[in-house]
Design goal:
single chain, 635 residues, alpha/beta, Alkaline Phosphatase, subunit A, 4-stranded antiparallel sheet, 15 strands, 12% strand, globular
Length: 635
């Protein structure tokens, strides 16, 4: 990796020239301004060297911290990828933007991500994300001229891509920039999210695979910055490095993240370094801040009026020229997680950090002094009732101030959505109902069961890998048998869990999927029908039901169900394949060819499935000729 330094770069423009809150006061020179937002998924602040960690490898991030501003107590708004990123891009709390979980919500066109504003001001904008969870279908692509994410293939689910590929794609975009272009790039690395599968070179260097994943991202960030330097695009560059959330790692009984609001999943790194904050290099900020403040901060530093994002939280991290900090604020910072409800039908949590206190409200209340008890091991709610009452009032006032903006679109899961989310450890959940129904279970009482459910899901993912041939037509009988054994183990875990968690939608869906994988289509049917009752337009569930129906002799019902899936998502390739297969099996090669041609028309140039679809269509055309049939559209 090439050495680089931001502090040593020529300082060609005075920070006064960047303008204050009312806009630029003078033109900047021919070198364009750059902003690079880097979000490293699932990264705890306390696993970064600049935050005191000695067991990792974060040289690039540590150097940025030395040359910039490090926020010691930065907090995410939610321990869930899509809601957290929606907040840091729009400057709006989840209570207002309404994206409360992954998969089932989409930011509508009424939302205003900062990329939209910057593009109006002439910035080139590009986003390069590492996970399907942030696919453009969830609405965060607004304002980006390029929005590049992992592709999905017809025959498998490609839900994420490694940091190296993300950087490769970003470099391709960077090479289209001219020296005078203003530009805003968003780079999202997903690698530190479970499962931890670092490249061998990194796995061997570190004691923990989580640290290895973070180190891999750090080095790829260094490669990206070296390329920007080589292109001459770092003179006026500002780099922001943060994370959407952390990882509990059993600090509070949670194996991963999403259920609770403790610091292990809410405290994230936040470093701002480079041209726009050069006067404040080496500063450390100790007061709590929220990632929701990033858009307000960027607008102020770039000299763009805050009115261009009128709904954002106007609590900038820095003052007008980046040289000094804002005075300490007493404004509370909002936290939430609805994943317990949407994924498990448990009670959600709302919370806030106000001064030194963290307040959490679920079925009960929790109060922690983050100064004397940073590990949140001593709940003070029972002994400090007056503080609890005051913070409850603050929470209600905050919710009233940042109320629903109706920016969200509830969406059915489309092609591969559910499989892709599940491969990443999520379900996509189901919207609707009352999240604050007091009869809902307390997550503290159910989180142990979630670990077992996660174990079963992991076995199912391993089984799926066993069943996926390395090359078409190369099934390994030994692998298939091993996959079946894994599914049987998963089924035993899931059936044991149903005794106490029968209402959990992920558990029910998982049982349907494991029975489906074992060939027990009749046994899978009721579970998929329950899932469809919660999400009537779930394309994935409709397709699974269709297969179950055809396998249990309900052919007409199967065709109707799969046709509905195809009509809901015209790019759902599995539906076309199913319908083509059905007609071919019944000797109607004309209809089969029609569906295969329709699929071919939907595939984009360069899609890895193109060759297989073209091969199958050619075969069907030969069969049509032999049987003197013509392509026939569906009834």
């Amino acid at each position: 990796m090439r050495a680089f330094t931001l502090a040593a770069l020529p300082f060609l423009i005075s920070l006064n020239g960047c303008g204050g809150p009312d806009g630029p006061t003078e033109e900047h020179n021919s070198r364009g301004r750059g902003v690079l937002l880097v979000t490293i998924d699932t990264t705890r602040a306390d696993r970064i060297g600049a935050y005191g960690y000695g067991g990792g490898g974060t040289d690039t991030i540590d150097r940025l911290a030395e040359e910039g501003i490090l926020f010691e107590q930065a907090l995410s708004t939610a321990p869930i990828t899509l809601p957290a990123h929606a907040s840091l891009l729009t400057g709006v709390y989840p209570s207002a933007h309404g994206l409360h979980d992954n998969g089932i919500f989409k930011l509508s066109e009424e939302g205003t991500p900062i990329a939209e504003v910057l593009r109006r001001h002439g910035f080139r904008t590009g986003a390069f994300v590492g996970s399907f969870i942030l696919d453009r279908r969830y609405g965060l692509d607004q304002g980006f001229e390029v929005y590049d994410g992992p592709r999905q293939r017809m025959d498998t689910t490609v839900s994420e891509r490694p940091a190296g590929r993300v950087v490769d794609r970003a470099i391709q975009w960077i090479d289209t920039l001219d020296l005078g272009d203003d530009y805003f790039g968003w780079i999202h690395f997903y690698d530190p999210h479970l499962p931890w599968t670092p490249p061998d070179l990194y796995r061997l260097r570190f004691d923990h695979p989580y640290d290895a994943e973070i180190a891999y991202c750090d080095e790829e960030l260094g490669r990206l910055l070296a390329h920007l330097e080589k292109r001459g695009l770092m003179d006026e560059l500002t780099v922001i490095v943060t994370a959407d959330h952390g990882e509990d790692m059993d600090d509070h009984g949670e194996a991963n993240h999403g259920v609770f609001l403790y610091q292990s999943t809410m405290h994230v790194p936040l470093i701002v370094s480079g041209s726009l904050v050069q006067k404040a290099a080496g500063t450390r900020v100790s007061r709590p801040v929220s990632l929701v403040s990033l858009p307000a901060t960027l607008l102020r530093l770039l000299g763009i009026a805050a009115d261009e994002m009128p709904d954002m939280v106007r609590l900038p991290l820095l003052d007008g020229d980046g040289a000094t900090m804002e005075p300490a604020t007493t404004a509370p910072l909002y936290l939430e997680t609805y994943l317990p409800y949407y994924s498990h039908r448990w009670h959600p949590y709302l919370g806030l950090v106000s001064g030194k206190h963290k307040f959490i409200r679920g079925k009960g209340v929790e109060l922690y002094d983050l100064v004397t008890d940073p590990q949140e091991s001593n709940n003070l709610a029972a002994v400090r009732p007056e503080v609890v009452k005051g913070l409850e009032r603050e929470l209600q006032a905050l919710l009233a101030e940042y109320s629903d903006l109706a920016w969200v679109v509830d969406r059915a899961l489309e092609e591969g959505d559910r499989q892709a989310l599940e491969a990443l450890g999520y379900t996509g959940g189901a919207a609707g109902g009352d999240p604050f129904n007091r009869s809902l279970p307390d997550p503290h009482e159910r989180v142990a069961g979630q670990k077992e459910l996660n174990r079963a899901r992991s076995l199912m993912i391993q089984a799926n890998l066993m069943a996926t041939p390395s090359t078409p037509g190369s099934q390994d009988p030994a692998k298939l048998e091993r996959g079946r054994e894994l599914l049987l183990q998963a089924q035993a875990i899931l059936e044991d869990l149903t005794r106490d968690h029968a209402a959990d939608p992920l558990l029910r869906l998982s049982l349907g999927e494991v029975k489906f994988g074992l060939g027990d289509h009749a046994g899978a049917l009721p579970y998929f029908e329950q899932a469809l009752a919660e999400q009537p337009d779930s394309v994935s569930t409709l397709f699974s039901l269709g297969v179950c129906y055809v396998q249990t002799g309900k052919t007409e019902r199967a065709l109707k169900t799969v046709r509905k899936a195809q009509s809901l998502d015209p790019k759902f390739s599995q539906a076309y394949m199913f319908l083509a297969w059905h007609h071919r099996e019944n000797g109607n090669y004309g209809k089969a060819a029609w569906w295969m041609q329709a699929l071919l028309d939907e595939l984009e140039p360069g899609d890895p499935s193109l060759r297989q679809v073209e091969h199958d269509l050619a075969l069907l055309e030969r069969l049509m000729k032999q049987h003197q049939q013509a392509p026939t559209p569906p009834d």
